Amino acid sequence: MRQSKLFTKIRREAPADEVAKNAQLLIRAGFVHKEMAGVYSYLPLGLRVLTRIEAIVRKEMDAIGGQEIQMATLHPSENWKKTGGWDGVDVLFKIQSRTEKEYALGQSEEEIVTPIAQEYAASYKDLPLAIYQIGQKYRDELRAKSGIMRGREFTMKDMYSFHESQEDFDRFYETVKQAYLKIYAQAGLTAKVTEASGGAFSEKFSYEFMVLTDAGEDDILYCEACTHCANVEVSKEKEGDTCPKCGKSKLKKARASEVGNVFDLGQKYPKAFGFTYMDKEGKPNTPIVGCYGIGITRLMGVVVEKMADEKGIVWPESIAPFGVHLISLGKAGDEVSADADSLYEDLVKAGVEVLYDDRDARAGEKFAESDLLGIPKRIVVGRDATASGEFEVVDRATGTVEKKSRAEILTPNA
Ligand code: ATP
Ligand code: MG
Q1: Parallel, antiparallel, or unpaired for β 102-105 and 74-76?
Q2: Is residue 204 very low, low, confident or very high in pLDDT (cuts 50, 70, 90)?
Q3: How far does the centroid of ligand 1 lie from the alpha carbon of residue 155, in Å?
Q4: How much distance in Å is there from the Cα of 237 to the middle of ligand 2?
């Protein structure tokens, strides 16, 4: 894409009312637009990042047998009254129609997915069943000061699974956990898995997926020698205690952000809706349900928080809005700009996702803006490059500069 055509522009100053680093950088660079505290629109660059994160998540959910749907976000209040959520869930947004009828905005989708599963899973032959979606959630959060990491509207991947037995559920639970770890790794993050209480959802245990960052809102205790990790909120352990799992190291305390979790919901939701299936013995039985969330927009915020440097955002290649930022230092009509134009066209033909800075601007300004945008590779076309046929390729994360010929740029794996 030609940057001269991109409708968003880079802002010099961060908005005064925004305290979170992730939102300051994303707003300045034109990835998101703030509507109010906790509510953001995603602009072309931001949507590209979200779409790439979603593609990673979708691939892994499909690989473990999840079936994608899109659920309604405007919910009948009756469903929430059946489960107790209408009065029990403090973050639920309630809407009144002019007809006096009441609705809820989806903050989670158990109230919608359970009746859907009930309609189709009549027999043990229809189980197990895993249904997921990637969509908007609405929550009346009291504090929304973490930028896109805590929204009142945000994007979540939520999956729900229905099982005949606890063993079958436990097996799937473990499968999802492994898929989650793969997802975070692909997005450039290392997640630690805590065992925590189920919170408002369930009395049974759950896993939380935590990424260490000072921008997070949770405190965890973890062991550097093994995978042991616990949320301070529910753990009896303390910093400095010997790890109860491996005994090899002392526990460390750190701030972290919850980028996902999985819950054992037991039979609560099917019971609320009278959902039974015919089991192998021909008797009605209640399925066991699990739910599995990933905060898609929060994950994007965490990546910004963790990887940004003093110059701006640093995207991992896997979720970057573009792979290459091509920068022309020519002026419209000159030899350098013709060289940059033709390199741009060749890169596009080769299937590379390129943002092409074809604007008339000073080199220093272009480089500073490029650093802020955080695209992994920058290729500069200036007078020297056009004369020698060797282009500077700069790695955004490390600052490493390599000289490459056009042929080397166009066949990166050769
Ligand atoms: P938290 O403790 O951070 O409020 P939660 O326990 O309410 O999270 P869930 O309801 O299980 O989280 O939601 C699943 C995932 O959605 C979370 O792990 C998190 O990554 C993300 N998430 C939850 N609330 C928000 C929010 N307000 N804004 C952005 N992402 C969120
Ligand atoms: Mg919450």
Answers
A1: antiparallel
A2: low
A3: 10
A4: 23
Secondary structure, 3-state, 379-405 = EEECHHHHHHCEEEEEECCCCCEEEEE
52 C-beta closer than 6 A to ligand 1: no
Peptide bond into 128 cis (omega under 30): yes
CA distance 197 to 170: 17
Q: What is the mean pLDDT of the chain?
A: 95
258, 300, 303: which to mutate for ligand 1, most atoms within 8 A of CB? 258
* Ligand 1 within 6 A of CB of 258: yes
Amino acid at 37: A
Rounded CA-CA distance 113/118 in Å is: 8
Ligand 1 centroid from CA 391, angstroms: 44
In which residue are the tokens 């369930």 written?
Answer: 202
Measured torsion, CA atoms of residues 371, 377, 383, 388, in degrees rounded to the nearest 10: 150
The residue type at 80: W
pLDDT in tens, 370-385: 999 999 999 999 999 9
> pTM of the entire structure?
0.96
Tell me the pairing of strands 390-395 and 324-328: unpaired
Using a 6 Å cutoff on CB, does residue 38 contact ligand 1? Answer: no
Buried-state track 368-383, b at ≥16 Cβ within 10 A, e below 16: ebbbbbbbbbbbbbbe
CB of 188 closer than 6 angstroms to any ligand 1 atom? no
